[in-house]
Structures are given as structure tokens and as C-alpha cells.
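ok here's Glycopeptide antibiotics resistance protein:
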Amino acid sequence: MRHSSGGRAVIHFRAAGTVLLLAHLLFVGWLTLRPLDVPWVTAANLQPFAGIRADLALGPVEAARRIGEGLLLLAPLGVLLPMAGGRLLVSPWASMARTVAAGALISMAIELGQTGVPGQVVDVDSMLLNTTGIALAHLLVVPVSRARLRRGNRAGAGDLSHLGHELRSFRNEAPQGATPTIPRVGIAP
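and the structure:
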């Protein structure tokens, strides 16, 4: 299959997504998994929504700050995971499900990693807020961006309209040959 300028643009877009994804994960890892020197540590929160209710009891400004931090910490993954995947022709619901599942697993890995870090506390509400932030970022950005890229982004990012045709023709190419088989050998009595 020949690579056109539109195909190269998608490859560069995918590479940029991978680099940004790794950079964001490194930043989040540093932020959430570094030891903190604190005089005391609260107990782990394993009851869903208990921490959110406690945040809401602190007043609207403090609650918005704390809940906003939880929503925004991993929200870029909602855009960066599909960007690193580089798929333009995909079901929006399948993309959403894959992205949210991967983001929830990353959030859970961070929370589990915090169990061994001094000064860091496991909080199930953090995982819920992180996953919600990922889902919201994905819903707000990815479908619109994919539609724009599929249309060819007439505003100047290059003409990718032929990409769908190239992908469809690539799928319809003839197979490479028969599947190899292993000859049957009789079993001795």
C-alpha cells in the first residue's frame, strides 16, 4: 500500500499522541506516587462517594477545587489514548468503552501503587472522579476531532479524505495464500 501525505499525517499524529501520552503518564506518576512528608495521614477511603460527600461539606469553593482536581488529573487520557491508537474509522461507542476501561485500569494501578508510598492514601473516589474525567474529555473532544479529520479538515491540516478509501481497499486485498496446515500423523498402537 502506498503511503500518501495524508497517511503520513496520521502516522505523525499517532506518534505525537504516543509521546504526549507517555509524558502525561510520567507527570501523573511523579505527582501521585512520590512520597509526601506530612505530619499525619487520613485513613484510606474504600467507600464510594464518601470522600465526595466530605468534599461537598467543605463548601462550594473547596469542593469545586477538590472534585475538579480529581476530574482533571487523568482527563487528558480521554483524548491521548485514542490519539495514540490512531484510528479514524471506529465506532464511537467502542472507542469510548476502550478508552474509559483503559483509563479506569490506569487509575486503579495508581491507587494500588499508592498503598506503598508514604504520605499517599488510597481513595476509591479518586478512581471514580479520574474515570469520569476521562469519559467527559473523550465525549467532548474525540468524536468531533475524528469527524473533522475524516472530512479532511478543510481548515488547513491536510486532506485526509482519501484515507478512508485507502483503508477500505487495504481490507479488501486478496489473502496472501492458503493457511498452512499440519499433516496428521497416525498414533502408534
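+1. The longest helix spans residues 5-33.
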